[in-house]
Amino acid sequence: MITRRGLAALPLLATLPRPAAAQGGEWTPNRPVRIVVGFAAGGATDISTRTIQPKLQSLLGQPIVVDNRPGAGGNLATETVVRAPADGTTLLMGTIGALAINPTLYQNLPFNPQTDLTPIAMAGSVLNVLVVPADRPWRNVADLIAAARARPDTLSYGSSGVGGAGHLAGALLDRMAEVRTIHVPYRGGGPLMTDLLSGKTDFAFSTAPTALPQVEAGRLRALAVVTPRRSALLPDLPTVADTLPGYEVANWYALVGPKALPGNIVARLNAAMRETMEDPEVRANLARHGVEPLPGSPAELARFIREETAKWASIVRESGASVN
Fold first, then answer.
1. Tell me: the pLDDT tens digits for 195-222?
2. CA 25 to chain centre
3. Which among 184, 210, 226 is the end of a domain?
4. Which end of the chain has less neighbouring CB within 10 Å, N or C?
5. Could you tell me which residues come within 8 angstroms of residue 33 by beta carbon, excluding any fewer than 6 positions away?
6. In whole angstroms, what is the distance from residue 64 CA to residue 205 CA?
7. What is the pTM of this model?
């Protein structure tokens, strides 16, 4: 099941029966399929979408066009798909931010992801790593928490923007460890990494592909992963949950479509996504980018989005983050 207690169970969903076609026979797109991505080319969501693109388009029999529409934390891309015809040719590779965090973070959102979009398939989860500059004395999560408790409102952590996974990972750490740290938002992962490497900030929750080269070069120290269990991608690295039981931040993304997408279209797209994410070459390529493929059913995805939205709503409110 897709639950907020752990995405680790998601691969088990690959063994479930494929969703039955409904509302007509098997669907085949009659023109190229556009997958809208709410971030610039080169980011984790974009790279993952382009990695699955060749296999997915071969299964659907039509070219797939990746349409990057960055802005407003993914909201511009989401609204593009909300307003698109429900014919299966305009889809969104949605993220935890766009689908679960933004409904609380943004005060005047003109759509509701739970009612204005159709869940199709879970895609994957990008591994996030808690890292600190190599010159800091902290060797593990307990050390970092102890330092934060000793110096309230002093230690700072950077993120690639307000309301993103990196921001709320820190807010969740504050809540569960009962500490107070300072959030420093940046305009993207590049400036964040620059200041972290220079020591201007004390820690960050960074995606594995961004952080690990700096860890291997000795400039950063990795303390833990944010998954509920150790990651197969970094099996020797402990989890934050080893120190704070129940801690989990799943930086996930999923394929969704416009509201009222017919059942036969959903079934075909879900089956194609599952087959794509089970392909050994696709899985290997995603792993190189720190992405764990996580196939699942539309119903399980819908439930997961509801649970994630509820989980992060309280954390967003507690953090005081808000965008008008």
1. 999 999 999 999 888 888 899 999 999 9
2. 33
3. 226
4. C
5. 57, 60, 62, 63, 64, 65, 88, 89, 90, 91
6. 32
7. 0.82
